Amino acid sequence: MLIDQCFADIPTDKTVIVAVSGGSDSVALLLMANAWAIKNKVVLQAITIDHGLRPEAAVEAAFVASICAAIDVDHVTLAWEGAKPVLGIQNAARQSRYSLLDQYAKEIGSDIILTGHTLNDQAETIYMRLQRHRDESDGKGLSGMSRRTWLCGGTQIYRPLLGVSRVTLRRVLNDFSQSWIEDPSNLDESFERVRVRKKLEAEAELTVKYLALANLCGRFRRVAVRDCAGFLHANVSLQPGPVFDLELPCRVAGNVGSDETMQKVHPVVLHGVQILIGVAGGGEYLTPRWRILPLLAKLMARDVKRVNIGGVVIERSGVCYRIYREARNLASLALEAGDETIWDGRLYLHNDTAETVFVEAVKRSQILAMEKRRGAEFEVKPRQALWSMPVLHCHDGRDGEKTILPMLDGFSLPVGLHARLAAPAIEHFCPDFDEPLRDWVLSLENFSVAYIAPKSL
Question: What whole-number distance in Å separates Cα of residue 171 and Cα of residue 220?
């Protein structure tokens, strides 16, 4: 019964990856997932990540491999290679872990990864976020981890055990007569999570309170996100550039004083502007609302006409606000055949051609030369939005070297080169609470006026 409840909503039509470290939670996940997979004729692939941080890691990976061999589940060990940071090692390890899992999932044609996060992990996460919430404005993180999370390429992470306690999982292991390995880092109190875990174990009533808080905040977040996505669909249009035109309802955009405006900015509007800054600016994280609010108030009160924040320019034009990328800190890169990337956090590129593609910020001289050849200026307003565009240099077997502005002329891309607007701040590690916002981002490629080539081409 417990297994059926935990895995009820997980797709069964593709290979399912199980992340297994050798600890009690992940080993329990492996055994429970295997029982579910046998019943539902699902192919499992177990993966252990060796972060290269402890000599015991190889032994732990071999331990997991032996369990997998006994239950006839394929297993591989993936290594985190390269230099390791001195600071923030746990966060860096987490990033590398999901990157390796995502890459392997794509290689085998899977898009489902199971992880062993438990009810106890959820309570610990809420506790840590609550401490940080004292300095934040919206506290949406208090909704905790979601059961399902998307990575930027569409891979989904499921946490089947998020409602199951660690005590219950160890009972499951005892029922299977299965041992596990205790990671010594789980005893190292130099890590915040270890300190929090010990505190919650000593004060069990706190776990109940934090889980109740997560449930309440999660319900509120789903409603707020639904309303924000509806606001964006109704009030935002996409113009070539890309330039996002935000038209505020009259009751919001009235000409009032700054202090009054700050009080009148609806949370849905504020969150919508936060999302637009994230999409137009390509930032890895959303700009905090407390930074946006005073600048938005000045624009709405007509104290200023233009502000810069989060890598974007926001301009006022009547009741309409134009939001577009600043022309600074724009990178260049070479995209090898078969690779994919997100340039400047804004443009997803997948090079399925046989040639290397070079991507850089367009130069004004290139724009002028292109306009001279076509005999007309590009219809981009404001014109400043042109200077933050990418230009692609690629080889076409028929026409030789080609120079393309994918955000203006995406349909001239060579066969096999795919492009679409992207927004890592929304799409990467996107919890199911925020699914409506992810859907809105993905819907942007339906704006044909923006000339972005669909990734399906």
Answer: 34
Residue 12 belongs to a domain: yes
In a domain, 8, yes or no: yes
Question: In sequence order, what are the beta bridge partners of 420?
Answer: 348
The DSSP H or E segment spanning 74 is strand 74-79
Boundary-marking domain end, from 291, 325, 359: 325
Please tell me whether the overall predicted TM-score, pTM, comes out greater than 0.70 for this model: yes
Q: What mean pLDDT do residues 77-84 have?
A: 86
Domain that holds residue 418: 333-450
Q: Is 112 helix (H, G, I), strand (E, B) or coil?
A: strand
Query: What are the helix and strand counts (H, E) for the chain?
Result: 15, 19
**pLDDT, mean of residues 40-69:** 93
Residues 33 and 162 in one domain: yes
**Number of domains the chain is built from:** 3
Confidence at 410, pLDDT banded by 50, 70, 90: low
| Whole-angstrom distance, CA of residue 383 vs CA of residue 388 | 10
Residue 211 is assigned to a structural domain of this protein: no
Alpha helices in 176-203 (DSSP H): 192-202
**399-402, long-range: CB within 8 Å, 24+ apart, which pairs?**
none
* pLDDT > 90 in the chain, percent: 64
Boundary (domain end) residue, out of 153, 181, 202: 202
Quote the tokens at residue 78.
């993936």
Distance of CA 370 to the CA centre of its chain: 35
DSSP letters along 400-439, please? EEEEE-HHHHGGGSPTTEEEEE--HHHHTTEEGGGHHHHH
First and final CA of the chain: distance in angstroms? Answer: 45
> Do the strands 16-19 and 112-114 form a parallel or antiparallel pair, or are they unpaired?
parallel
Q: How does strand 112-114 pair with strand 148-150?
A: unpaired
